[in-house]
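Weekly modeling sync, notes
Attendees: S.R. (lead), two postdocs, one rotation student

Agenda item 3: backlog of single-chain predictions. S.R. asked that every request posted to the team notebook include the full sequence so nobody has to chase files. The rotation student volunteered to paste the first one in as an example of the format we agreed on. Action items at the bottom.

Example entry:
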Amino acid sequence: MDWGNIPHDPQGCADQVDAAFERGDPLVGVAVLGLSLCHDDAEVIAPRARRAIASGERQLRCQGLTAVSHMVRRTGEIDDVTLETLRPLLRDPNPVVREHAGSIVADVWIFVPHPRLPGWLSRRQRLQSVKWWFVMGWTDISLYFRRP
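Predicted structure, as returned to the notebook:
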């Protein structure tokens, strides 16, 4: 992708990203990230990010996840297909992908209006909140009783 000559229309940039996928460009993940940072159209960004996430290559998958995060932060939107693509990554055997997917889901929870989100995501985030408060509370209580 020629970063000095980025098309101003989202579809032109998306076409360049698609071409990078087709020719197996080693920097296609960077192109997906660039698309997510340069344009505000979630319908154009999401399919390319999902394509990167579906890759067998860990780095490209993580770049696709980061592109989803940028998309959500910039647009406040995410489609159901992308959410269902993220869900199994929360149980991915690779700890790097699993942790990164958890961060992206947290971004979705923060930037997308909650009524638009599926029930599984609401339950997960509420459980994470309870878990966080329990761990923090337990740490504070333990420190209190250890004082001389």
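Discussion: group reviewed the output briefly. The helical segments are 10-22, 28-38, 42-53, 58-75, 80-86, 95-111, 119-146.
Action items: rotation student to repeat for the remaining queue; S.R. to check formatting next week.
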